[in-house]
Description:
- This protein is mainly β.
- It has no helices and six strands.
- The strands form two sheets. A three-stranded antiparallel beta sheet has the order 4-1-6, with no helix packed on it. The chain has a three-stranded antiparallel beta sheet with strand order 3-2-5, with no helix packed on it.
Amino acid sequence: xxxxxxxxxxxxxxxxxxxPAGVDGTIDIMVDSPWTSCGGKKVGSMRLVKEMPKKxxxxxxxxxxxxxxxxxxxxxxxxxxxxxxxxxxxxHSIHFTK
Length: 98
């Protein structure tokens, strides 16, 4: 329910607690649909690089466009990589923070 974030001053961040897997990749944060062709809107992104240590870390993405939303909206993580058949990370938790 984005009524609580509507009009927030400052940045809104999406925090992912994850262990990078040593693979280059991107996590795009989409709202309403995972595809722009179906009405989805990209509100943030984060990049993982293969050189990141394979230990638990907090990955942050600025998702300030969400502060202009009201009501309930689906949030999608669209994960991509040029390396086929390998995960870019092990995701442990997800939350919003300021």
